[in-house]
Structures are given as C-alpha cells and as structure tokens.
Amino acid sequence: MSFRSPGAGRAVRLPRRPRLLIPVLLAVVAIVVLLLVFSGIYTDYLWYDSVSFSSVFSTMLITQVVLFIVGAALMIAIVGGNMVLAHRTRPMFGPGMFGAPQGADRYRVALDPHRRLVFLVGMGVLALFTGSSTAGLWKTWLQFVNRTPFNQKDAQFGLDLSFFVFTMPFLRMLLNFLFTAVVLSIIAAVIVHYLYGGFRISSPGGVHATRAARGHLSVLLGVFVLLKAAAYWLDRYSLVFSDRGKTFGASYTDVHAVLPAKGILAVISLICALIFFAGVIRPGGMFPGVAFGLLVLSAVLIGTVYPSLVEQFQVKPNQQSKEQAYIQRNIDATRKAYGVNTAKVTEYSAKTDTDASVLQTEASAIPGMRLLDPSLLSPTFQQKQQIKGYYQFPEQLDIDRYPVDGKPRDTVVAVREIGRPPDGQRNWINDHLVYTHGFGFVAAPGNKVDSSGLPEFSERDIPPVGDLGDYEPRVYFGENSPDYSIVGGPTTGKKIELDYPQQGQAGDAQQNNTGQVNNTYEGKGGVSVGNFFRRLLYAVKYGETNLLLNSNINAESRILYNREPVQRIQQVAPFLTLDRDPYPAVVGGRIVWIVDAYTTSDSYPYSERKSLESLTTDVQSSRLGVPQVPRDEINYIRNSVKATVDAYDGTVTLYAWDESDPVLKTWEKAFGGVVKPASQISEELRAHLRYPADLFKAQREILTSYHVTDANAFFGGQDFWKVPEDPATGKSKQPPYYVTMKMPGSDTERFSLTTTFVPNQRQNMAAFMAVDATAATPNPPLEILQLPSTTAIQGPPQAQNLFESNTTVSTELNLLRGGGTDVLYGNLLTLPFGNGLLYVEPVYIQPRAETSGKYPTLRRVLVLYGEKVGFGPTLSNALEQVFGGTVATPPEQTPDETANQPPGQVTPPESSSALTSALDRAQQAYDASQKALSSNPPDWKAYGDAQTSLKKALDDLAKLKTGASQTPAPSASPSASGSPPAGATASPAPSG
C-alpha cells in the first residue's frame, strides 16, 4: 500500500539546453568566488611575508581554520546526529494511519524525495555559520592555551587572576557553544519527530508521543539542564564582575546571597537533570513536569527573590557599612589594573602672591615653556612648508624633543606627505604610479618664533635643510599615503615617480625638463608584482584592469599597500590596542613612525570597567580628524609595546616595553618571536619614546574618583574630581599637554605630560598631575600635586575668564577682532612655578575672511599667577608684568622692535581724546591694510602704506598710560594670508 499523493516525487524534466546551462553558470560562479577568496588569502600572505610577519598570518589562519573545522564538525555531529536519531526511531506508520490531521503528512510527503538534499544543505549552512562564529573566537582560544599566571590572587575566591582573564572567557565560549548545539538539537528533533509521527497532535487528547520520541527529548532536556548546572557554578566566579553594588565587583548581596544561591541552584539543576534522564525509563510526563517546575520555582525564589530581600532589608539601610569591604576591593583592584596604584600624591599649598625674586629662582624653566600649539599650527606649516599643493600636513601636529642650542627642547614636528594630484590631473597613472610618496621632515622649536609670530623652522624645505643632518626624506608609508602605489623598476630604466619639485632649469636626465626630480623606489617594502599571476591577483583584489595592462609595471615593480602606520601595526599585531596618535621621528638616518601599543582586558576581577573611547575622548580628538580608539570596555591596560614603522620601506618593529605584563607574555607564547626585547631599543630611538597620551587620559579619568583610597570617603564621593572643559572652546575635556617643566622639589626640568583636575561641582583647581614622559622606565609613577580644599586657586576655566575679562587684554583683542581678524587661544599650560601655579597661554590671530591661504600667527602671550595677569608680545614681557622683576630676553624669542616696553606703574594719559584718536587711527589703518590684502590681486603698495600708518598709531598708543597698568601694543607685522610684499622677511607663499 502506498501513501504517496498522485504525482508525488515526479521530477519536472527541463529541456536539454537549460539543463546544461545551469551547471555551467554554477561552475562560473564557483570559479569567481574561489578566485576572489583565493586572491584575498594569498595577497594577505604575500603582504605578511613582505613585512617578515608570515608567522602571524600562519598562526591566525591555522587557528581559525582548525576552530572552524572543529566547531562546524561538532555542531553537525550533535545536531545532525540527533536529527538522524529522530528519523531512525520514527514509528513504522505515518501519522495519517491514525486519522490525525494531514498537515504533517503532507509536509513529509513533499519533503521525502529531497530529504537528503535538504539535510545536507541545512547541515552545510549550519556548519558555515557555526564555523565562522567559532573561528572568530581565535583570540580567546589562543589566550586560553597560552595563559600566563599573574601570581596575584583575587580577593573572593583566592584564585590566580589568570583564571578570570584567560580561562573563564574560554569556559563561557564552550558553554555557549554547547547550549546552542543542544537547543538546536531539541528544535531539530521536535521537527523530525513531528514530521515522521513521533508526535501526534489530536483533539481533545492533546499531544501524543511515542516512547522513543519522549525518551529522546527527555535526554536532550536533561543535557540542557546539566549545562545549566555548570553555568550556575561558573556564575559564582562571574560575581567578581557584578555591577549590582555601589562599585564594580562582588557586593555584599552578591557574596552573602547570590553566591550561595548559585551553588544551591547548581545542585538543584543536577537533580532536575537526573529527573529528566529518568523520563527515559519511566514513561509519562510526570517526571519532566516535576523537574521543570522545580527548576523554575527555585530560579525565581532562590535566584531572584532571596537576593532582592537581602539587598532591600539588610544592605540598603546600612549600605555604607555593609559595602565598605567590597568598595575597598574595587578601589585596590582598579588602581592596580589601570597602573595608578604607584601614583605619588603631594599636598601642595600653592602661593598666590608674586615676588620679583621668583623670576631669578625659576629662570632655568622659562626657556622650556612651549608656546607653539600643535593643534593650531597645521595651516601655518601648510602655508610655509607645503612647497607644492600636492603635499599636505596632518590637522594635528606632534610634539617631540630635539636639541636646540645643545639642550633638548619641545619641538613641533610633522612630515610632508603626498596628497592627491592637482585638480585636472587625476587619473590612474598619476594616482598610483607618479604621486607615490611625501618628502621631508619639518620641525620647529616650541619656544621660538620670529618677529612676525611665525615658527622658526629648525628643519625645513625641499631638499631638507636644517639641524638634523642627512637622512632619508622620502615618505612612502604615512598617515595620509595613497591606498596603493606601484613603485620600483630597473636602476637604468625610466624614472616616473615624482620625487620633489625643483626650481630653475631642469635639463638633466632625471628632471626630464619638467621642473621636478623623478625617482625610482629602491627600498625593500611592498610586494613584488613582477609576474602576470600576481598582477592578476591584485587586479582582482582592487578591481582594476590597469594592474594587468599598464606597460610601466615591470619585473622590478612592487605594490605598496596597508601604508598607514597604525594599520600596519594592527595587521601584524592584532592582539594589541593602539594609541590614536602616531608621531614621526628621525632615527638612525630614517624617518620612523612611533606608535604606543597596549594590552588590555575586560576580565580583571573587581576593577571598574570603562569604555576606552570614553576614557580617551577630549576636545582634541572630537575636534580633529584623529583615528578613533575601540569602543570596547576594558578594566585593565598596560603600555606593553613600543612599535615603529619605517617611513621609507614600511618595516614594522615591535619592542616589549612592559616585559612583566602577563597578557603580553601570553601573546608572546602564541606568536613567538614577533615582539623583540626592550634591550634591542637603540639609544637614539629611546630618546624619542614618550609616555603615551591615551594611557595618560585613561589614568586621569580613573583618578577623578580613584585618587580617593578610603572606602568610606569613596562611598560619599564628596572629594571626587573631574577633568575641566577645554577653556579655549568650552567643549569636551581639556587635553593633556606635553611640555618641559620642573616639578616642585626637583632640581632639573624634564619632558612631561601634564593635566589638571577641578572639583566635581566647581571650577577652581583641585590638583595638578604630571608624569615623566621621557620613557626612562616602563611605568613611571604619576605625580599629583593636591591643593588644599580650603583654598581657591583658579582652575583653567576660571583662568581663561580672568584673561578675557581683563581690561587691557579685552581692549586690544577687541581692536583686533574689529579689524576682521579672528583671535585664537592656544593651549593653556598649567605649570608649577615659584611655589604656586602659573598659567601660560599663547594668543594667535588669523584673518576672518574665508580664504584657503589663511593661517595663525603668534601675537601675544597671556600669563596668570594668583590674581595677576600679564599680557605681552613675549613670555618674558608677560612674566615681568606679573612678577615685577626682569627677565633677559631668552634666545628662543625674538620680539618685534615695538614690543619691548617696561612693565610697572605708569602715569595716566593727559587726555582721553589722545587715546581715542590713537585707537581710531589704528583701526582705520588696520581696516585699510585688510582691504588692500583682500583685493585681487593684493594691492601691496596700499598695504605697505597702511602698515606704516598702523605702526605710527600703535607707537602713539603705546606711549599712553591708563591707571596703574600699561597697555601693550600689538605688532604691526602682517597677519593676513597671501604672499608678502617684496622685501618682507616671511617665506614666499607656496605655489602649485
């Protein structure tokens, strides 16, 4: 007897041609997909091999492939095995034999002819998703199998911290996999049993199941509950990551209620699992029903209600005393995990009264005070050192140290990177074969400006001129390098790469009468694309046929890609988190990029979890186009690696900086030989290493509350701090600053990274923090000067308010603003000085008109000590106004001739009409100069006449006295953009 419907199982036959076309199309699609996959994998291997990190690629690939296969195979074995078991234990007769509804029978009849195909496709899809998911957890696996002990025990269970950092994530991964496999097995078994009669739905009798189906599901449910018992037991250890209490980590309720509850629930789950298993022997639904009811009831009463009662009636009425011990655990763990436990706190009773002798005592610190602001100077570098329009500088410049007059000084640095070709010259050849690299390193001492307020470049121009001597100036690997470039060729062949522009006659073979010097790359960087096969692979990778057809690509050609320093390091060390601010340095005759790298974890017991992005975001990162750090939450961080990238050949080098870090040791086991020991860092490179900004930002954010080390005081939170908003913009947090300074009690100045704190609800100064940024040791202690809460020293926002409300300052700045000029405040530095705190802020001006050539120039320096404001054309002049002493003009500043005016008390003007007249004439002359500059082309004669009139008016204004203070005169130097008139001292405006 047959139960098939008429026509069931009959295949619809297609005509011969379509039957042949479908396999051909499928074969073509398969070939294309395989080619794409192969080209991606093989070109990745070629790239890793080109940077000598092929072991990283092979370790990652093998680990992911093995995890993919194991995960997919286990999932297929568990789910597929249960499906096969359900099918083999099906009843002999289908559900239609018993008069049941025909829905399941119809589904079975339709599915039967394609049963194997559906099963194989389903298992294939399941294997693909499971394998991909499992392979994505390769880091968890490698950390588990290569785990390194911390040799520190947690406060609750007495286990080594490595159990929580390395082992628990793997156990969670394993449990999640098994839970998923069992749940999918239950769903698949129910479907198969239903389709083949193991379950029958009838009315009014309900669901009827065969003995085999009931036993099968009882075992699966028993295994699920058994896994739940294991999860409850593991949850006990997860309490060290609880966020129930006042602080992160196990609270009073967690330890005294949740912890025993989890143990009890684990035991109950074991009992319930046995009851489910008993359902195999004893038919009926009583045992599974009892087990399910007991499981749910215990989870609600023991797992939820009991802890809530303890929290409500024991903890909340006495929260401070109950939570004290657990808050202390959190404080100790957090400070250690973020590396702030060694911070040195000093009570600092800052003076506010001034004394002329201070200038003599602190004379050695004055030349080191940096006035150039790297966040504002990019347009100035662009206009004065761009040379040609296809070069560019980053929006945010960097701070490093270079010798000036034999002493290391803060220096603003950048590299001249290649941009896109000029408008109208964009094509594939120019984009990828001609405009291939930047050229040169540009540096300006942070405390030197010329009479026009422009940086005095110590390294400049093309070809390079300056103090750094000979070095390889070509930048093939940089922050703004093209996506990819094809470089290299025979030494006697045609040179097509633009090397640098050259003025004057161009007649030799290299210049080709074009006014530019051409070049052929001779480095070892990049991947050779000298044969057709590799060119084909990269043509597929980039979807570009020119890689196959262009005749300039030869046997010596190499393709450069993954060129951004952070990107290159992330590729070779995917286990590291990178600082967002790589910076260039000239080391060993080469330009190298230096990048700080961190090892992080989110599994350090009791340590407070924070988003790394929120910890490191400030006005600098939100205002400028700097790369964003990962948003992942962390509760442990170490600056464990210093990395460099050679700007010419792209060589990546990783140095172990914090060699005691267990997380780094674990990764070193997984990727042997990838990280070099710190002993291999050259002295020249070490001189340019610095304390990383992102780590410092994270630590200062933690210290806003965790400077309080007493649990009772922490509970109250009255002494918590915050990082002040940036006073120049009033938006987001003020960034930390690199500056050379001298800490109280120290005899020598040093390169430091500094920040300030204000109380949570106020704006006065709470503390000043600095760290030795010279990288003399891996983990230098943070030094905190904590001000007494009974004093009210101005915080940065209040200092800025005092500057702007000062009559002298506001009068002159309003005059400048009224003349079509924008006033820009530079970085507000806070420095320990003369047993007090000194604020130093440079003031820049730039034209308000929206022109592509405008740039800021340094015009004034603001100084605040106590309540006294100094405002002068030089730092020395401003300090003299505040302290009343005399500072010899240091060699790093060259003020203009009209600026050297003595400070102190002066006689008031004889007539207010003289002041008004001088101000009016200065305003009219300034307006005339701006009008002359804004004309097209600029009227340089009119501009010169107006500047002469402005200088005379300001000289008259300088002689006038008002009250007991002197009004400094602004410089008559040009402040607008564009090319200066003949004879001017400023550099010529760039062309091209």
Helix content: 40-55%
SS elements, strand count: 36
Shape descriptor:
globular
Gyration radius (Cα, Å) is 36 Å
Strand content: 15-25%
Overall mean pLDDT: 86
Biggest β-sheet: count, sense, barrel? 6 strands, mixed
Q: Oligomeric form of this entry?
A: single chain
Structural class by secondary-structure content: alpha+beta
Poorly predicted runs: 1-9, 504-513, 889-913, 961-992
DSSP summary: helix tally: 27
Tell me about this structure.
This protein is of the alpha+beta class and 992 residues long. Among the domains are: 133 residues, no CATH class; 229 residues, no CATH class; 195 residues, no CATH class; 86 residues. The chain has 27 helices and 36 strands. α2 runs antiparallel to α4.
Please render the helix and strand layout as text.
Blueprint: H1 16-50, H2 54-88, H3 103-111, H4 115-135, H5 138-145, H6 161-195, E1 199-202, E2 206-209, H7 211-238, H8 252-278, H9 286-315, H10 319-337, E3 344-347, H11 357-361, H12 378-385, E4 391-392, E5 398-404, E6 407-415, E7 417-418, H13 428-434, E8 438-439, E9 441-445, E10 459-460, E11 465-466, E12 474-475, E13 484-487, E14 497-501, E15 516-519, E16 527-528, H14 532-542, H15 546-549, E17 558-561, H16 565-572, E18 577-578, E19 583-587, E20 590-601, E21 610-611, H17 612-616, H18 619-623, E22 633-634, E23 636-646, E24 652-656, H19 662-670, H20 683-686, H21 693-706, H22 711-716, E25 721-722, E26 737-741, E27 750-759, E28 767-772, E29 783-786, H23 796-805, H24 807-818, E30 821-825, E31 829-833, E32 836-847, E33 857-865, E34 868-872, H25 875-883, H26 912-934, H27 940-959, E35 961-962, E36 965-966
Parallel strand pairs: 3-29
Antiparallel strand pairs: 1-2, 4-7, 5-6, 6-9, 8-12, 10-11, 13-17, 14-15, 16-17, 18-20, 19-20, 20-23, 21-22, 23-24, 25-27, 26-27, 27-28, 28-29, 30-32, 31-32, 32-33, 33-34, 35-36
Helix pairs in contact: 1-2, 1-14, 2-4, 2-6, 5-6, 6-7, 7-8, 8-9, 26-27
